[in-house]
């Protein structure tokens, strides 16, 4: 079937991820309808304006003889910035480099003391002599420690756990220079220890091991060293190149040594310099909506210098830096590389891991933000639907078959929302079930969330509130619309419950479970109830109303028979056990014989793995 779409000759067609057939048609001067037809011929039903997956674009390209090049979001962002004459690599003059502090993320198994350790480190920061000294959680903080006669700063990402780390990496942001792997000495290497280690290795980030809780009587720090050799981390004292430091975060023991180890590792393994002349570039590590202050974002400068009054764009958010605060709540006028600051003045909330940059003027940053938002919307659409073949769609229409759990995630910070979403998509679920997140955002659950939940086409969505709530009015509205709202404050709990829901969503699977067998000893006819089989139960038990099959000389002579009545002597019985005699009638089979075996079974719901 010819559809009139132009054929290519192997020419390159550059398409951004999440493009639609219309976008494709534009590039090759075709009628979008003709591409819809081509895709239909290839067995996929897509509309002209719908964002499609990379695979679909590549498939169609190959079919038409074009070499489709999917442009990655990073490349695309460079192209976008180029339209504004911004070249990230050249924007900051490289001739004046300064030494910058290392940026550290703390990872490890749950309950091994990550949070306590971050607290303990925060408290050691006495050298700086900061006024107030009370640090606020802004997503990152810096401490200054004396090291070989110098005061050296270290920046800590203040969200323990792996999710934040991976969410940032997934967005292409390389923030962390060093990972502190916390392992409790009384517990040893655990699954998330290994997971953390793998993340750090994948990111090619050096590791310092904090062997924590050495104050505990059952602590065995040497065992931790031993265990980690299996994962390629050999302690220095055993001739390897990983520093292991015994600490006890709770009483605050060994923290100085740990910081020392971080600096030694940084100096040995890393080149920590950054240029400072030029507009700032960096990453947003945390962002949320603050009641009084609007959108606030903690950004980590990586290059250049950020100053109050700069126009910045962070992901799809933009604005002018109205004020910058450090982790003590003090105003700062400028932030140099590796300095985390809380930025006020953005018009919306960026996502954790979004890169930011300062630009010439408000107009530029606004336009960049708008274009990024448009692109993200397209990309979200592309990711939200699994590619469905025409066959799939038809089968679904016929049977109403696939089950999906559709979610809206609202949370108190973009980091937590993303972390939750990422973790959810890691749940292993059977292929019959689909997990869809149709919206995610920061802030309280609103009417518009409920509207979206009830408007979603195939199924009412469930709203997840992570440390956020819905007002009474919104709650009522949700009740009326039949929208379920679930609140969580711990990621693990949310994941566990949603995992259970996903498994529960599956239509139950049944399996046949043998109940018992009986041998027919006697067959006699009752004028009232027909043929009665006198039996002895040979194994298990017989139950009234149970399904049965009749086996004669090893062959099934009747299947799908029901034990319709069951008696012990004169009395009705619901079940009769092995070794006992009974009389029974069978419905569905009219000629039982002496010597037949009755095998009974029951269908039971199979538990999901
Ligand atoms: P996280 O889940 O890794 O962030 O672990 P937490 O920092 O919340 O610590 C888990 C538990 O271990 C808490 O009850 C802490 O008080 C306790 N804990 C953490 N560090 C130490 C330590 O050095 N010694 C002792 N005895 N307990 C600790």
TrEMBL record:
Pfam families: EF-G_D2 (PF22042), GTP_EFTU (PF00009), IF-2 (PF11987), IF2_N (PF04760)
Gene Ontology molecular function: GTP binding; GTPase activity; translation initiation factor activity
Location of the Tr-type G domain: 99-273
Keywords on record: Cytoplasm, GTP-binding, Initiation factor, Nucleotide-binding, Protein biosynthesis
Gene3D superfamilies, per the entry: P-loop containing nucleotide triphosphate hydrolases, Translation factors, Translation initiation factor IF- 2, domain 3
Coiled coil: none
Residue positions binding GTP: 108-115, 158-162, 212-215
Chief localisation class: cytoplasm
Location of this chain's protein in the cell: Cytoplasm
GO cellular component, one term: cytosol
InterPro entries for this protein: EF-G-like_DII, IF2_II, IF2_N, P-loop_NTPase, Small_GTP-bd, T_Tr_GTP-bd_dom, TF_IF2_bacterial-like, TIF_IF2
Similarity comment: family membership: Belongs to the TRAFAC class translation factor GTPase superfamily. Classic translation factor GTPase family. IF-2 subfamily.
Protein's job: One of the essential components for the initiation of protein synthesis. Protects formylmethionyl-tRNA from spontaneous hydrolysis and promotes its binding to the 30S ribosomal subunits. Also involved in the hydrolysis of GTP during the formation of the 70S ribosomal complex.
NCBIfam families, alphabetized: IF-2, small_GTP
Protein name, per record: Translation initiation factor IF-2
Record gene name: infB
């Amino acid at each position: 079937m010819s559809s009139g779409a132009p054929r290519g000759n192997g020419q390159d067609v550059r398409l951004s991820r999440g493009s639609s057939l219309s976008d494709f048609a534009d590039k090759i001067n075709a009628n979008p309808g003709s591409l819809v037809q081509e895709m239909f011929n290839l067995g996929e039903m897509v509309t002209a304006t719908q964002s499609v997956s990379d695979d679909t674009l590549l498939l169609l390209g190959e079919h038409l003889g074009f070499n489709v090049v999917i442009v990655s979001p990073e490349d695309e962002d460079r192209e976008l910035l180029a339209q504004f004459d911004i070249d990230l690599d050249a924007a900051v003059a490289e001739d004046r480099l300064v030494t910058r502090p290392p940026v550290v993320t703390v990872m490890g198994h749950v309950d091994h003391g990550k949070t306590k350790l971050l607290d303990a480190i925060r408290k050691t920061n006495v050298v700086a002599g900061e006024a107030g000294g009370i640090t606020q959680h802004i997503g990152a903080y810096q401490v200054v420690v004396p090291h070989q006669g110098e005061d050296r700063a270290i920046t800590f990402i203040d969200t323990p756990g792996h999710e934040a780390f991976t969410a940032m990496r997934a967005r292409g942001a390389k923030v962390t220079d060093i990972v502190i792997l916390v392992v409790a000495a009384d517990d040893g290497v655990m699954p998330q220890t290994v997971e953390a280690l793998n993340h750090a290795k994948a990111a090619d980030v050096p590791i310092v091991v904090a062997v924590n809780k050495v104050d505990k009587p059952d602590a065995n720090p040497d065992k931790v060293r031993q265990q980690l050799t299996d994962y390629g981390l050999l302690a220095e004292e055993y001739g390897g190149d990983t520093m292991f430091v015994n600490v006890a975060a709770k009483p605050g023991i060994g923290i100085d040594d740990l910081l020392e180890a971080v600096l030694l590792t940084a100096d040995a393994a890393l080149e920590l310099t950054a240029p400072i002349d030029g507009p700032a570039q960096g990453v947003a590590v945390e962002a949320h909506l603050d009641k009084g202050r609007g959108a606030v974002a903690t950004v980590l400068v990586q290059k250049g210098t950020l100053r109050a009054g700069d126009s910045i764009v962070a992901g799809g958010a933009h604005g002018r830096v109205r004020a910058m605060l450090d982790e003590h709540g003090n105003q700062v006028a400028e932030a140099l590389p590796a300095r985390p600051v809380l930025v006020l003045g953005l018009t919306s909330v960026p996502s954790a891991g979004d890169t930011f940059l300062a630009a010439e003027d408000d107009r530029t940053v606004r336009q960049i933000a708008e274009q990024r938002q448009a692109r993200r919307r397209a990309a979200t659409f592309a990711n939200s639907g699994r590619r469905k073949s025409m066959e799939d769609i038809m089968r679904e229409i016929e049977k109403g078959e696939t089950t999906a759990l559709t979610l809206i995630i609202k949370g108190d910070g973009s980091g937590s929302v993303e972390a939750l979403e990422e973790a959810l998509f890691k749940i292993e679920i059977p292929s019959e079930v689909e997990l869809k997140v149709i919206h995610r955002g920061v802030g309280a659950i609103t009417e518009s969330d409920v509207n979206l939940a009830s408007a979603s086409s195939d199924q009412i969505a469930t709203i997840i509130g992570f440390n956020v709530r819905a007002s009474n009015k919104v709650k009522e509205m949700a009740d009326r619309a039949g929208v379920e709202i679930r609140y969580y404050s711990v990621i693990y709990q949310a994941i566990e419950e949603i995992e259970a829901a996903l498994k529960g969503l599956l239509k139950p699977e049944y399996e046949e479970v043998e109940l018992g067998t009986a041998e027919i000893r006697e067959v006699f006819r009752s004028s009232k109830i027909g043929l009665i089989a006198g039996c002895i139960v040979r194994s298990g038990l017989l139950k009234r109303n149970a399904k049965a099959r009749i086996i004669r000389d090893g062959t099934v002579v009747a299947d799908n028979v029901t034990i319709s009545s069951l008696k012990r002597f004169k009395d009705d019985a619901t079940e009769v056990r092995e070794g006992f005699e009974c009389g029974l009638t069978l419905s569905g089979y009219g000629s039982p014989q002496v010597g037949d075996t009755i095998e009974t079974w029951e269908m039971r719901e199979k538990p999901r793995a």
